[in-house]
Amino acid sequence: MSRPEVWLVIVLSALVTLAERGAFLITTSRRPLPPLLQRALRYVPAAVFAAITLPALTRPSGVGLGPLDVRLLAGLVAGVVAWRTRNVTLTFVVGMALLWLLSWALA
Amino acid sequence: MLLGAVPFGMITGVSAVGAGLHPFDIVLMSGLVFAGASQIAAISLIASGGAIWAVVLTVAMVNLRHVMYSLALAPWLQRYGAFQRVLVSFLMVDQSFAATIVKYPRAGDDYPRVAYALGNGVPMWFTWVGATAAGALLGAQLPPEWQLDFAVPLLFLALLVPAVTTRPLLVAAVVAGALALALAPLPYNLGLMVGSLAGITAGVVVEGLTARTPAGRPAR
C-alpha cells in the first residue's frame, strides 16, 4: 500500500470510528438498539480478535521445530502468559523473547 | 489508567514500523483514530496487503463496541451542545467510558459531566499519541531481524484472552478463529469478515441455548 493509500485508510478509519463513538452521543437519538443487536455487539471483540490472531500466529515463518513453526510455539506460550497474568507487556516480552531464542537456536 | 497506555502505545508504534509503516503515519493514525486495538488490526492488514476498504471495514468492526458505549452515555450528555458532544465522542475510549459511566450516576445533576469526560480523555490522547511516537522512533532504529511484526499477533492475543470470560464468548472466539484460519487464502481478508460474523452468530446462539431454564424462562 502506498503512503497516500495509507493516509486514505487513516482518514476513513477516523471518520468511521467517530461515527461509531457518536452514534448516540452526537445524534442524541432516543431510539434504542434492537435487543438482538445489543447482544450481538457483546461478541464482537472476542470474535474479531480471534479471527485476526489465529491466522497471523499460524502464518509460516520458515523456521520450525518439526511441523511446529517458531511463531506458533512462541504464540502458544504467550497465550498462556496472557491467560495467567492478563498483562499486555509481559505477554509481549515473553512472546518476542521466545521467538528470538527459538529462531536463533533453530536457524 | 494512563500508565497502561504507555507500553501498549509504544508496542503499537514499534510493531507498525516493523510492519513497514512510516513512523509519521502511525502517529497520525494514533491522533485521528485514537483506538489501539483497531490500529493494530489496520497495521496487520496493511502489512499483509489488504485492500483499503477491507482495512477500513475491519477497523469499523473492531470499534463496534463504541456504539454500545455511545448508547449508554447519551442520556447523561443530552443537555450539552453539539460541539461538546463531538469532543466527548472523539475522546471516548474503553478506560474513559468505564470511568464516566460509573461517575455520572453517583454525581449530582449539576455535575460538570463534559469536563469530567475531557479530564479523562485529553490526558489519555496525549499519552497515547506520545507513546506511539516514542515506539515508532524506537522501532525505526531496530533491524528487521528482530521480527517486530510479530508484536501484532502478540498484542491481539493479549486483548483476546481477557475478552473471553464466558462459555458463549469462548465459542464465539473458537468459531471465528477456526473459520478465519480455514478461509485465510480468500482475497480481501474475507476470511476475517466471514469468521468474525460466524463467531458472533455462534456466540449469540449458544447464549440463547444456555440462558434458558427447562421451563423456557431466562435463568437469572
Architecture blueprint of SSEs:
The complex is a heterodimer of chains A (107) and B (220).
Chain A: H1 3-21, H2 35-41, H3 44-58, E1 64-65, E2 68-69, H4 70-85, H5 88-106
Helix pairs in contact in A: 4-5
Chain B: H1 2-18, H2 23-32, H3 36-47, H4 52-62, H5 65-73, H6 82-90, H7 94-106, H8 113-141, H9 151-163, H10 167-182, H11 190-210
Helix pairs in contact in B: 1-3, 1-8, 2-8, 3-4, 3-9, 5-7, 6-8, 7-8, 10-11
Rg over C-alpha atoms of chain A, rounded to the nearest angstrom: 20 Å
Shape of chain A: elongated
| Average pLDDT taken over every residue of chain B | 88
Oligomer state of the chains in this structure: heterodimer
What count of domains describes the coordinates of chain A?
1
Q: What is the CA-based Rg of chain B, rounded?
A: 19 Å
> What is the rounded distance between the termini of chain A?
31 Å
Q: Would you identify the regions of chain A where 5 or more consecutive residues have pLDDT less than 50?
A: none
User: How many domains, in number, for the residues of chain B?
Assistant: 2
Order of helices and strands of chain B: HHHHHHHHHHH
Strand order of the largest sheet of chain A: 1-2
Distance between the ends of chain B: 33 Å
Can you give the helix content of chain B as a percent range? over 70%
Largest interface (C-beta under 8 Å): A-B, 67 and 93 residues
Helix/strand class of chain B: mainly alpha
Total of DSSP H or I helical runs spanning 4+ residues of chain B: 11
Shape of chain B: globular
